[in-house]
């Protein structure tokens, strides 16, 4: 993160977060991905000026497409809303919007942080509600962190296994590292994530209780009505693919277990990079490129004939679906849920 030119540490509490940033970056600790750690550092560096309403202002523009629509959603006048946006940019020392476009749109580097901002906004609201809950009305609730693809496929069935316990569940969808960070910082009770044999050890596994609750295949899929175009690319010695970023779990799986096995087919051309499996699935539907998708996510489309499973010619990978929690969890409610999950694991 670039420092404003005029920045100077005023007090010891201004220096500590920067030291934390340096140490975490140097050691490449996954804990640095924790959104709360980053927010604390940002608030210290900028004198505590980062506010929840600023995050919500940025998200409003992202979700509604323009300043005008966003200010209506936020129930403020457009001049006042524009002043607030400029105040955020002044505090951060960077432009957040491309104002050359009409309407103005978020800069690319801000778009990259939207998922993290949504998680921060939701987490801070959850914390506020918990602190106000003097009567304990929220106690019969657990928080589950789930990888995006699992949240859309297996998680509903798993949650159904403990529906009779009369428990409210908050589901947070995130990438694998962020799911683990939520467990380690006790912002979630249980995480559902993928793992692959031979992949890097799960960060923080010494502190976690882990059970296997199923398996899923990561399969290559493509639009059935565009196979001719794919064959033409293959004849030219090129395979168009949708890649996941190298810093997310599925991206690491692709680079370690999938792409090396594709060299016999010619040049692998990553036509698109996205961290979202649902986005990769949509692009595969259009015939844009081959996407590797968890099989349950593509099952209905394959059965309906819209997508083709290319596992007979391209590599597929078996992934383990696991549940994880801190091994010192003391919540009786989370314990009851965990026992149901363990029972599910015994059926595997």
From TrEMBL:
HTH lysR-type domain ranges (all copies): 50-107
Statement: the UniProt record of this protein carries the keyword Transmembrane helix: no
PROSITE patterns: HTH_LYSR
Protein family (similarity comment): Belongs to the LysR transcriptional regulatory family.
Keyword Transcription regulation among UniProt keywords: yes
UniProt protein name: HTH lysR-type domain-containing protein
Keyword tags: DNA-binding, Transcription, Transcription regulation
Gene3D superfamilies in the cross-refs: 3.40.190.290, Winged helix-like DNA-binding domain superfamily/Winged helix DNA-binding domain
Record GO terms (molecular function): DNA-binding transcription factor activity; transcription cis-regulatory region binding
Segment forming the signal sequence: none
């Amino acid at each position: 993160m670039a420092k404003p030119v005029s920045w100077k540490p005023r007090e010891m509490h201004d220096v500590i977060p920067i030291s934390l940033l340096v140490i975490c970056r140097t050691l490449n600790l996954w804990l640095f991905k924790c959104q709360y750690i980053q927010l604390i550092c940002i608030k210290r560096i900028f004198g505590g000026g980062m506010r929840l309403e600023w995050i919500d202002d940025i998200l409003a523009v992202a979700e509604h497409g323009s300043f005008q629509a966003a200010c209506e959603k936020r129930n403020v006048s457009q001049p006042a809303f524009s002043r607030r946006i400029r105040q955020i940019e002044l505090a951060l020392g960077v432009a957040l919007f491309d104002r050359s476009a009409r309407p103005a749109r978020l800069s690319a580097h801000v778009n990259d942080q939207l998922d993290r901002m949504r998680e921060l906004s939701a987490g801070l609201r959850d914390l506020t509600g918990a602190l106000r809950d003097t009567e304990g009305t929220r106690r019969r609730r657990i928080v589950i962190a789930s990888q995006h693809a699992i949240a859309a496929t297996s998680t509903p069935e798993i949650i159904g296994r403990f529906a009779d316990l009369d428990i409210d569940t908050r589901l947070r969808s995130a990438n694998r590292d962020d799911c683990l960070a939520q467990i380690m910082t006790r912002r979630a009770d249980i995480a559902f994530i993928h793992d692959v044999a031979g992949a890097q050890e799960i960060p923080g596994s010494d502190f976690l209780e882990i059970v296997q609750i199923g398996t899923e295949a990561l399969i290559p899929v493509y639009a059935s009505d565009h196979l001719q175009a794919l064959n033409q690319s293959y004849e030219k010695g090129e395979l168009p693919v949708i890649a996941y970023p190298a810093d997310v779990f599925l991206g690491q799986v692709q680079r370690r277990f999938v792409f090396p096995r594709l060299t016999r087919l010619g040049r692998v051309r990553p036509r698109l990079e996205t961290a979202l499996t649902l986005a990769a699935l949509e692009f595969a539907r259009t015939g844009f490129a081959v996407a590797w998708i968890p099989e349950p996510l593509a099952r209905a489309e394959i059965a309906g004939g819209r997508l083709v499973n290319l596992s007979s010619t391209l590599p597929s990978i078996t992934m383990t679906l696991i549940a994880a929690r801190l091994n010192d969890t003391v919540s009786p409610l989370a314990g009851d849920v965990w026992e149901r999950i363990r029972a599910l694991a015994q059926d595997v």
